[in-house]
Amino acid sequence: MAVVSVAGAAFTVTLGLTAYTDQVTSGTITTSPTIVRTVTLGDVAFDQTDLNSTVSLDFLYDEASGIYDALQTAIAAGTSLALEVASASGTWTGAAMYVESCDMTVDAAGVATCSASFTGSVAFA
């Protein structure tokens, strides 16, 4: 099987109705099933009882006009956001993703970067 690599610039992150391409520097999408192990008389049974998804994004701080502002607004309101990460190899979609954290860091050179993490249900297609 051939391996396909997708350059980071090929990704578009959409929050709500706005697509962000330039300031997202990296990210991780994790889908973790909850597996329950049950010992039976004959063997051990494994059942998936839940599916948890998390998304983390690192991006350049864009002041009060872009992704940072959208996240702060959702945090203050306690609402979820539609999240989509689209690439040439597929799309991850979360209709209702909740912001778990949003951090901003400024380094000695004065460059401000942010990271955010989300939780909800993510589907890949």
CATH-defined architecture: Beta Barrel
What series of H and E elements makes up the topology? EEEEHEEEE
Radius of gyration: 18 Å
Head-to-tail CA distance between termini:
19 Å
Task: Tell me about this structure.
By secondary structure, this protein is mostly beta strands. The protein has one domain (11-124): Elongation Factor Tu (Ef-tu), domain 3 (Beta Barrel), CATH 2.40.30. It is built from 1 helix and 8 strands. It has one helix at 67-77; strands at residues 12-15, 18-20, 24-39, 44-60, 81-87, 90-106, 112-120, 123-124. Strand 6 (90-106) and strand 7 (112-120) form a beta hairpin. The longest helix has 11 residues, at 67-77. It is elongated.
Question: Short description, anyone?
Answer:
This protein is mainly β and 125 residues long. It is built from one helix and eight strands, in the order E-E-E-E-H-E-E-E-E.
